[in-house]
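Predicting holo structure, NAP bound.
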Amino acid sequence: MKTAIVSGVGPIDGLGAQLCVRIAKEGLHVLVAGRTQSKLDAVADLIKDQVGSAEAVVADATDEVATKELFARAGDNLDLAIYNTGNNTPGRIIDMDADFFANSWRVCCFGGFLFGREAVRQFIATQRGGTLLFTGASASLRGRANFGAFNSSKGALRNLAQAMAKEYAQDGVHVGHVVVDGPIAGEKIKRGLPEYAEQLGEDGMISIDGIVDGFVYLYRQPPQAWTFELDVRTAKEKW
Ligand SMILES: NC(=O)c1ccc[n+]([C@@H]2O[C@H](COP(=O)([O-])OP(=O)(O)OC[C@H]3O[C@@H](n4cnc5c(N)ncnc54)[C@H](OP(=O)(O)O)[C@@H]3O)[C@@H](O)[C@H]2O)c1
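Done. Tokens:
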């Protein structure tokens, strides 16, 4: 059975969790990875009860040892690796502690380097190649007032992903980046920021299913027609 790893899994009604569910439906065994055991267990249990095969793995994406252990657990059948980890970190530059800025970079970019490096090492070692996908945001493409830390770290992740796409395509590694251009209709916005969600309305938030469709599309592409980047936004988004 082919194996997938998804890093950055939180609540069931979130992108990371729904990526896991869909990939399990596609027939892969999924390593559900993130920071909080209870959230990971909930996702892995749901998959095992209803759709397929999964296991929960606690692995802080910024921890090199934990990342290596995560990939060791995936074994030789690794076919798909998704780095979904990323936290928005708003704030004005002049008010920002150095640690706050560095932490944004560690979660959004450095963790992507650790994850991507291990994925590519494993894909090359098995000589079968594989697919490595990253979750981007509006921040990946442009700077915006009050979001300098997040914009710079997501922008750096995108350039890292593009460099890896060019460096390892010949080894059969398909690297892709999905720009999620706007708020996601998931737990983070709906339950975390209910007033904002109401203001946006259902049509103003990006459908998780639609985003997941994009990841699966990239995963299923043949090497004769690979896409590096795909962007997803609502019809209402001004961009
Ligand atoms: N939410 C949006 O509106 C939005 C919009 C555009 C792009 N995005 C991007 O979409 C992706 C998913 O974000 P999401 O906010 O919607 O959340 P999500 O996919 O529901 O969950 C992401 C999970 O990542 C976990 N995480 C955070 N730091 C981690 C670390 N160092 N190591 C391992 N796991 C970690 C968090 O777990 P805990 O809960 O356990 O801390 C969080 O729940 C991110 O890359 C984000 O930048 C989100």
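Residues 139 and 151 are 4 Å apart (CA to CA).
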